[in-house]
Design goal:
- The protein is α/β, with parallel strands linked by helices.
- It folds into 3 domains: 192 residues, 3-Layer(aba) Sandwich (Rossmann fold), CATH 3.40.50.300; 233 residues, P-loop containing nucleotide triphosphate hydrolases (Rossmann fold); 157 residues, Sec63 N-terminal domain-like fold, CATH 1.10.3380.30.
- Helix content is 54%, strand content 11%.
- The protein is globular, with a radius of gyration of 33 Å.
């Protein structure tokens, strides 16, 4: 295999191949060939197929040629993982890390960073990218994510032209479309696509705790499975009347997984509460899935990790939270609400095969390398932010992507638990449907507008909006829309050109029949209004009413309505269509014309909307920024320049608070508690929550001031029809104040909280990142900068800054 590649650059490729314990796969060879031909490359391949090897080669080649490479990921945990991997591979001096919380060796030849950090770097310090040869965009299908996907598009459009991009994506159906757009922005981008999984996946449908094959050798549903599903459906209907719908039960399903040797398994449950309850049930049932030797390994791993925690308070907290006995029996859970150490411990033990069943939310299907022998989907419906909907083919593929460990399992298993209200055909369509289709979620933001206007005029910014992947997809769709419009117009012309009669002398024309239909519609409307008016007349008992004195909403009396009705009736009687023997055919002809005209109007409206949508949205954002003093004639003001250096949905609110000058009145803990209202996302926005007593009167006053800013800015947004600001959240105010005041974690855990510690730590990390940006942005205001620095330092505990 190495010889296939070595035609381009034998020394580099052979040297790289020598570092690997296995020969390169054909698709890896093809991608490396493209890089050696000085092309960028987009790789679309299933999870665990070895896409990262292509990035490894680019990094290897950069180090060998004294160039630099940047590896970006969408997740901080994934960035930390890649940082440690590349440090072990290339040495500490050669690898750096830049995230919102950590900056380690940022000028190293290889730097791992989150995607947003690279975007910020492109705007703030593009000179640091002069020696960068490759940028690796891991999980590039995140372009489909809202609201973060726009960051990937900004990077691809704005990065210096000398940089070659390597995009690593899960299997997507429209990878060619993505590559064509990237080629328009970056020059030649080659595509390498693999659809075959490295380990075969076998799907099973669980019904009443028994596993039935989902697909036969021909790709259809096996007869036994279909018959069983039909029998279950009839049973479901009978039992639903008794309010006892049948379902798969957790404990027998886990037992079946063990008996069939499907462990280790990831058991996906789409709620944190569901994960907790499942783990508690299995623990109470007495499942013990590990051997004595494995228990000893787990004990040693737990002790080793606890010993690595330098903060005794944090170590004590983990000892309180850690359910060591359940972990020793091979059971765990994994979701975003857990503290980082607990998640990392579960990940490490699962990767070693010591955790046999992990109950996890869908976040585990993203990024982190945790292959399993089997993946179980506990529910085929998932809340999409608005309603519960069946899983799409792309979502199911993502969840099943971890099933099958390369080099260990000859077959991976995917188990779908059938629910009473989900038809087997719906599951089959998702199981055999197309891969995920990436659709742009590009949306201009205030920060994007301010940063672009720092370096470009308004006309150039408009052109940059037209370069987005979203606009490219709209142009592609516009071509098919134009074809559809042409077909509709031709059909309308053909229909209108045909004779408006069947046989004999024509008595109707299109004009007279249109008048006839309108007269019919007016007569029907007037009769309905008269009936409604008569009802109101007879229901009025408080005073006597004379006929004709009651008026309807349009201001007409019954007598006036009768007169108008008679006028339309006379017009109808005078039209030749009334006695036309072919009126039925003419009506069908007329209806077809009206339908075609309506479809043409709708298509023209869609075409008009698709033209320059992002330009119009950018103009609306500029209007808001101008109204609020961040722009002056499309040029950032001093306040606008300050806002351009603070990234986030609510950067305008933070900037206005700085401009108003009252932040300096706060202590560091109070400043942290005030700003976390702006930076943290409200996970429970639509749910009732207890009223919180804020820690100090200064924080209460800060909340009022921030709300005034938010409501004033939000009103301007509504006037312009472009709402981007996120509502303020008080969920983490008390926790943040206690944290920055130095209160021990163990005491904070004992206090009553309606938030999860993992969410709280995530909010603090987001705040820490924002404080670093503010600290840099207010360099010309020493007193405020000093306060921000102290506030950031008050946040610094290992939980926040540890890599």
């Amino acid at each position: 295999v190495s010889q296939t590649v070595s035609s381009s650059s034998p020394s580099f490729v052979d040297a790289f191949q020598a570092t690997l314990p296995w020969p390169l796969d054909p698709f890896q060879v093809e991608a490396i060939d493209k890089l050696e031909a000085h092309q960028g490359v987009l790789v679309s391949a299933p999870t665990s197929s070895g896409k990262t090897v292509i990035a490894d080669y680019a990094i290897f080649r950069s180090l060998e040629t004294d160039a630099r490479a940047i590896y970006t990921t969408p997740l901080k945990a994934l960035s930390n993982q890649k940082f440690h991997d590349y440090q072990r591979l290339h040495g500490e001096g050669y690898v750096g890390l830049v995230t919102g919380e950590n900056t380690i060796n940022p000028l190293a030849p290889v730097v791992v960073m989150t995607t947003e950090i690279l975007r910020n770097l492109i705007y703030e310090d593009p000179q640091r990218l002069e020696r960068v040869r490759y940028v690796i965009l891991d999980e590039v299908h995140y372009i489909d994510d809202f609201p973060r996907g726009a960051v990937w598009e900004e990077i691809i459009i704005q990065a210096p032209p000398h940089i070659k991009f390597i995009g690593l994506s899960a299997t997507i159906s429209n990878f060619q479309e993505v590559a064509e757009w990237m080629s328009l922005q970056r020059g030649d981008i080659a595509t390498v696509s693999v659809t075959k999984r490295p380990v075969e996946l076998r799907l099973w449908l669980a019904m009443r705790n028994e596993f039935y094959p989902m697909l036969d050798q021909q790709g259809g549903i096996p007869r036994e499975t279909r018959q069983r599903a039909q029998a279950e459906a009839s049973t479901d209907r009978r039992l639903s009347q008794l309010r006892r719908p049948p379902e798969n039960d957790l404990l027998p399903v886990v037992d079946r997984l063990q008996r069939r040797e499907f462990l280790p398994a990831i058991y996906f449950i789409f709620s944190r509460r569901g994960c907790r309850e499942a783990l508690a049930r299995c623990a109470a049932h007495g499942f013990d899935l590990t051997s004595g030797a494995e228990k000893a390994e787990i004990d040693a791993a737990v002790k080793q990790r606890l010993d690595q925690i330098e903060d005794p308070d944090e170590s004590s907290l983990y000892r309180q939270l850690l359910d060591g006995e359940t972990l020793r029996r091979g059971l765990a859970m994994h979701h975003a609400g857990l503290l980082p150490y607990l998640k990392e411990l579960v990940e490490a033990l699962f990767q070693r095969g010591l955790i046999k069943v992990v109950f996890a939310t869908e976040t585990l299907s993203l990024g982190i390398h945790m292959p399993a022998r089997a993946c179980v989907v506990s529910s085929f419906t998932k809340f999409d932010g608005r309603d519960f909907a069946p899983l799409t083919s792309g979502e199911l593929t993502q969840l099943m992507g971890r099933a099958g460990r390369r080099g260990i399992d000859p077959i991976g298993h995917g188990v779908i638990l059938k629910e009473p209200d989900i038809d087997i055909g719906t599951i089959y369509e998702a199981a055999t449907g197309e891969e995920m289709t990436v659709e742009s979620k590009f949306a201009p933001t205030y920060n994007m507008a301010l940063n672009l206007l720092r370096f470009h005029g308004p006309e150039e910014v408009d052109l940059l909006m037209e370069r987005s992947f979203g606009q490219y997809q709209k142009l592609v769709a516009r071509r098919s829309l134009d074809d559809r419009l042409a077909n509709l117009r031709q059909r309308l012309a053909d229909v209108q050109a045909s004779r408006f009669h069947t046989d004999g002398e024509p008595c109707c024309t299109e004009r007279t029949f249109t008048a006839f239909v309108r007269a019919e519609e007016e007569i029907g409307s007037l009769r309905a209004r008269m009936r409604r008016l008569r009802r109101e007349h007879w229901q009025g008992r408080s005073r006597r009413r004379r006929s004709g004195s009651t008026r309807e909403a349009g201001g007409l009396t019954l007598a006036e309505l009768k007169a108008e009705l008679q006028t339309w009736q006379n017009q109808l009687n005078e039209l030749p269509c009334r006695k036309c023997p072919f009126r039925g055919e003419h009506r069908a002809h007329h209806d077809e014309i009206r339908e075609l005209q309506a479809r043409i109007r709708a298509s023209e409206h869609d075409a008009e909307r698709s033209q320059g949508e992002y330009r119009r949205r950018m103009h609306a954002l500029r209007g808001v920024l101008g109204d609020l003093g961040f722009l002056d004639e499309a040029v950032p003001t001093e306040k606008g320049l300050l806002a351009s250096r603070i990234y986030g949905e609510n950067s305008l609110i933070i900037t206005q608070a700085i401009a108003d000058g009252w932040l300096e009145e706060l202590t560091p803990p109070e400043l942290a508690a005030a700003l976390v209202m702006v930076t943290a996302e409200d996970r429970n926005r639509d749910r009732p929550r207890p009223r919180r007593r804020l820690p100090t009167s200064a924080i209460a006053l800060a909340q009022k001031r921030l709300r005034i800013i938010y409501y004033r800015f939000s009103a301007r947004e509504k006037e312009r029809g472009e709402e981007n600001l996120r509502p303020l959240s008080t969920d983490y105010v008390n926790f943040t104040y206690d944290w920055c005041s130095g209160r021990p974690l163990t005491e904070m855990q004992e206090a009553p909280m309606d938030i999860e510690l993992g969410d709280a730590i995530k909010a603090l990390k987001g705040l820490y990142s924002a404080l670093r940006q503010i600290e840099w942005a207010v360099v010309g205001q020493p007193p405020l900068r000093k306060l921000v620095l102290k506030t950031r330092e008050s946040l610094e505990r290992d939980l926040i800054t540890r890599v």
